[in-house]
Amino acid sequence: MSLFLDTYDVIVVGGGHAGSEAAAAAANMGSKTLLITMNLQNIAQMSCNPAMGGIAKGQIVREIDALGGYSGIVSDTSAIQFKMLNKSKGPAMWSPRVQSDRMRFAEDWRLMLEQTPNLDFYQEMVSGLIVSNGKIVGVKTSLGIEVKAKSVVLTNGTFLNGLIHIGDKSFGGGRAGERAATGITEQLVDLGFDSGRMKTGTPPRVDGRSLDFSKMIVQPGDENPEKFSYLDITKPLAKQRSCHMTYTSPEVHDLLREGFDRSPMFNGRIKSLGPRYCPSIEDKINRFANKDKHQLFVEPEGWNTVEYYVNGFSTSLPEDVQFNALRSVAGFENVKFFRPGYAIEYDYFPPTQLKDTLETKLVNGLYFAGQINGTTGYEEAASQGLMAGINASLKVQEKEPFTLKRDEAYIGVLIDDLITKGTEEPYRMFTSRAEYRTLLRQDNADLRLTPKGFDLGIASDKRLKRMEEKHSKAENFVQFFKDTSVKPEEINPILESKDSSVMKQSDKMFKIFARPNITIDDMRKVASVNDYIIDNNLDNEVIEQTEIQVKYSGYIAKEKNNADKLHRLEYVKIPENFDYSQIKSMSFEAREKLKNIQPTSVAQASRISGVSPNDISVLLVYMGR
Ligand code: FAD
User: Fold this and answer.
1) DSSP category for residue 380
2) What are the GO MF terms of this UniProt record (predicted)?
3) Could you tell me the pTM of the whole model?
4) CATH for 461-565?
């Protein structure tokens, strides 16, 4: 008798960051879901740095949380340090980041999934897909077990034909200590998919007891830490663990260079492209030969472990070269290794083969999410998993698909970039990729997305109520500033003390508060002279939201206006299988690209490289617009 008697609505293959979010979303939407992964001990394992968030990635985690995904909650429960990055810049750039307890992160994810209804688990390698008449009908495992499903989400990460490199040694593996996954790439290629190879690397992990932290610079967390989740499941951290910073030196670089002839990167054994913005240490000293030092961040791996992650020292050089060079870094003179750094090459599938729902164009009901799509990073993977899980579920339930536009979420930018432009090197998110970043802030992800998550059935009633309360309190507060006038004699002493130009006649408080150096405390003083009281118990989130809406109202309005203009083309839909070959007045390159990518809207068509504004005009005329 088979272990699996039922047909699942959704099977998720792989329990990494993408797979965990996909499984949670599908199950929470009422789909009977099975998560099959090679090792149930390693659910949402952090393969590389023990941290979540950071620039643009922090915004993504908040978006996942706002929609009802789990990454934000788990990031909070397992955090050992919190920092809001870029606080000195405008709010579009503020990016939350936590240092995580690696083991606790994986444990908490598994606990969250075990508490999710409709979700079954199975540990084994999926070695093949069952496809019938261009439609997915199930998966096959390495033991030969067949499990039937109406849809399948593949989230294989770095495991597909993974090949690990350390110096001149290489061996199969999905990440250190885990075997590679085989069978799936070959079958997908037979089905007509294009595949490619990418690479990434990770630094050594070392024993903190062997380090001399007195030679390094302490990097504490924020004095007033915040958190990721908009829900109040956890409180901000009461205590935190510090990181440390140190530097490489010319001596360290010379020692590293000694191993270049045995480096798989320099002797040509690794041919695939790695993440440009997360280069290995050998890459850095090679590319920036005139720099005599590089920063290294020494990050604890958890609350109770002595293991440390050497951020900035990612390498695939031989282990003896890594060790020798690291011993010349200040504070590392007596370093003991827990694990050497390594690089890994793996298969990915160019994401232009996907629809905007992350369903493949070739096989009905088959979805791809995460590193398999050529991205890098936990946050990028988790957000795709969430979207694939949602859409797989919606499809099975015969409901309309769910997509996010570029002005609605970083997740929308990410997916649109992937399916429209594709990627030939590991894709990571940056704020600069988003043209509407003043709208896509970390502080307002709940306002943007929680109502959508609620409609989908994954954001709870409690989450929606919290969002609505914050929204209405902030709106009222903004209105108060718009409605209330102040006289010059009431405000000028404060303005003078702030070196801000004085007022000659009465004006609205909104205008004063909009000035960059005027704070909420100044406003409280003005309000009190004016016989108004600003509630002292107002939530910090409400105050922050109000302040941003007042101080950045001009920028926000301008971006909204630009986004509205773009929507006009977003709503001009292109029918499926549209025949571009008929449009002879369009450039050949544009016709080929459009035929290949099959954009769903004219706006998406306009973002494809090689499609010019003139091609778009021709397309619009052809479509009778
Ligand atoms: P993963 O987290 O890799 O999870 C894949 C899961 O699928 C695993 O649980 C695996 O067991 C399972 N699986 C795979 N195939 C099968 C199968 N056939 N059957 C059943 N289960 C299967 N990101 C950065 O942002 N910066 C970095 O510097 C960086 N460096 C990295 C270095 C290394 C060595 C590695 C391995 C990863 C690195 N990453 C880095 C990438 C980061 O780990 C990934 O982006 C992220 O984990 C991808 O999430 P995912 O869910 O797509 O895949």
Assistant:
1) H
2) flavin adenine dinucleotide binding
3) 0.94
4) 1.10.10.1800
